[in-house]
Each structure stands twice: as C-alpha cells, then as structure tokens.
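Justification of resources, computational component.

The compute hours requested in this renewal are based largely on the per-chain cost of generating structure records like the one below. Each record pairs the submitted sequence with a full structure-token output. That output is archived, and it is also reused by downstream analysis tasks.
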Amino acid sequence: MLGLIILSLVAFVYIRFIYRRFGGVYKYEVTSLSFLKDIIDIELTPLGNPLRHTPGQFAFVKYRGLPTPDHQPHPFSISSSSQSPTLRFSIKKLGDYTHSLHLLRIGQLALVSGPHGQFLEKLRLSQHAVFIAGGIGITPFMSALSSPLNPTTQITLFHSVSNPTPSNYSA
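The structure output for this chain reads:
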C-alpha cells in the first residue's frame, strides 16, 4: 500500500512539475476553425519547431485563455498528415470541455504535448489494411490516409455514421 502511495506521488510530481517544464510542449496558434453541426475542425500552426507525429497518434492540447471547466490539457487524435507542419484536430462536442471549444478564436495560443500512442505503428509493414471507423472515430484514419505510407499497402476503409449527411469527411 505504501508503495502505491509513493508511486502515485512520484507520478503526480512528474506530470505536474517535471514534464510540464521539460517535456515536449510545443506552442501553436489557432489559424483555422471550421464548424459543422457538433464537429469542430481546428487547425494549428507552429510558433516554433513543429511536433512530428506518425499517423494514428494523439496529443494533449490546452488553449490559453479558454474558460474550461478543469483547465487541464485534453487528448485528441491528430487528423492531419504526418508531413504537414500544421496540426488538425477534429473534435465532436461530447462533454463540458469540448462544448467550450466553440469559444476558440483565430490567433489563440495552443500548448500541445506529444505525440503519444502507436495506433498504426505497424501499418508501414502491411500489404493490406482494413480500417473500420464509426463517426468521429475516423480522425486517426484521416491522418493515415493523408500521409505517405508504404506505396504497396492496399487500404480498405469502412466508415459508419448515424446521419449520412455531408460532413468534413465526405469523399
């Protein structure tokens, strides 16, 4: 029990103080906002070195000056190409934090940490890949489809939506 308490304290100190100070935090600026029903597409342009990611990864994002319920960074899948210096996040309004994103403005500062995850790490080695996505779950696959992959990889995408009206992801 004592070991668990010590581990928890070490994790808290690391995340709260060490990682925030010395971890990979990148400064970005909101340069494009697109709203379609309950989805917001946010494009961020780097104010210094850009974050380098691979398809399927996610990042934690915190917007300066955004009145949010908990003031903490939140994880979002990166939907932009891994070759683009800009980052695109496609986010569905599902909770208090995501509902507050409609208050974002062009020029607002975003702090991005990451990238995290290895969702599509082995895709470059595959000859065939089948992607199955539902609704906003398409975002990590959008990054994969717009990034250079193994040219011999054949990709089949199945995307299911509850309302088949035009969206940001229509072909």
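The beta strands are 25-36, 39-46, 58-63, 74-77, 87-92, 109-116, 128-134, 154-160. The longest helix spans residues 2-22.
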